[in-house]
Amino acid sequence: MSVVFTRVDDGLGEFALRTLDPEADAALLRRWVTHPRSAFWLMQDADEAQVVEEYRRIAAHPHHDAYLGLWRGSPAFLAERYDPAHVELVGLYDHQPGDVGMHFLCAPAGTPVHGFTRAVIRTVMAWLFADPATARVMVEPDVRNTAVHALNAVVGFEVVGPVTKREKEALLSACTRAQFLAATEPAAATAEEGALA
Fold first, then answer.
1. How far is C-alpha 170 from the geometric centre of its chain's CA atoms?
2. For position 60, what pLDDT does the model report?
3. What is the pTM of this model?
4. Which tens digits make up the pLDDT trace of 7-21?
């Protein structure tokens, strides 16, 4: 289980992503995905064996993978990356080269930490854009999940429109590298635009 990405948040310190072990991490993941606050993850009734099965399936998939997120060295969130041409959004939108799909889930917290969820999504987005092949990140949260829609907007996502999936009515949104930089690091976005001019 190796760390694949690290980001230091100005306010909250070190965040990292490591490879997920479906067996070793299953008990922890089950507590997260079955928590009432995780209803939109659609695994409320999963037992530990079902969690192992789901994350083994993801680990074996050539176009989908999952990572455990760490905050200051302790497990704190889950992130999934997928190719929307092969997973989740097949045939549901106008796929472009460099599109990457993303899911994330913060661990239910006994005591909420101000700015934590925002720091997590910034970390996940920075990780995805660290790959130069990533041109745009796509997300498809449930249309009713207004909290995540607002959070997505904060990091630069723009709504594409609703899409009907087998398991939910989703709100498809997209974020380019330039949109992410403009939303989270205005100076970096200006420098990038200047370099391209």
1. 15
2. 95
3. 0.91
4. 999 999 999 999 999
